[in-house]
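Message: I would value a second opinion on how I read folds in token form. Give me a protein, with the fold worked out from its sequence. Write it directly below this note and I will take it from there.
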Amino acid sequence: MKTQVAIIGAGPSGLLLGQLLHNAGIDNVILERQSGDYVLGRIRAGVLEQGMVDLLRQAGVSQRMDEEGLVHDGFELALDDRQVHIDLKGLTGGKSVMVYGQTEVTRDLMAARESAGVQTLYNASNVQPHGMKTDAPYVTFEKDGETWRLDCDYIAGCDGFHGVARQSIPSDVLKVFERVYPFGWLGVLADTPPVNDELVYAKHERGFALCSQRSATRSRYYLQVPVEEKVEDWSDQRFWDELKLRLPTPLSERLVTGPSIEKSIAPLRSFVVEPMQFGRLFLVGDAAHIVPPTGAKGLNLAASDVSTLFNILLKVYTEGRTDLLERYSEVCLRRIWKAERFSWWMTSMLHRFADSDDFSQRITDSELAYFLDSEAGRTTIAENYVGLPYEAIE
């Protein structure tokens, strides 16, 4: 088998990169170790930055998102019984975010790829890149009891934090930056109307809470819990009771509860590897970086990586600009570290840390109050939340 770009991983980043490349006439094959149904079964966040919304439109897969997605021009920060509105649109010159589930993004991209007849090989096991530092890289994999070889020009590692792409790079080449947080997010998905028209980030002495949504009839709620907590210890009733305690009274009084249709605990970490490339292998999305979900940056950072890699490869194939290949990592990392900072800041400001002393707590409270009481401070939050600009590839 032969292609121009081999993509490892059929999550949203791999599928989006594949769609953009296909539309530009650049041949690509996606290898995915799981089944398509498994990929679609992943429950993930769904707050899309303006940049990702524009990228999905560029890829020609935005019709359902534009019809069903919820445009949010702001969000609420709740501090005990005080609520502060962050006017995203007003503070950023008209930018907003789109609430549209990652599962739906993946479904749309899968449908577009299938309609275009572009090859995605699911249930491909033992995927392994080779020859990344040569001019003739290739990927081997097993499918249906046979071993295959896929020759290519470049390899995109879009296979997530636990994937093979990053693990294929010698450990002494990569520098790892990591912070693991001492708590997780207990998330519940329920077919109940959202408690608020916009997202609510709540800071409370009992811990952080987030009120999110997937549609006008489906809600997603989160509670900060100790990292060692077990899902089995949280009945639906216990979850709703705790959520009500952490929300301002006006919100808790109108919260509609119901049976959960999904419940899980996600650990929180900040993680970055440098560089994000090794020869002709490029790491994309979670393969190279993880952010705590507080700033809604995980999927959006993957999209900006995709945009950078696509625009570089486009110039390589149309203009012969192979000099741009070595710029991929530095361009991506400039934006990644700014998003890591924002996600760390939001996490630090809104969560309770068990080892935080009274002085540190007062400093945190004062810093958050400074940002919220200042238009400049609220503008900084808004600019980061809607997403910083993508860097042009020239």
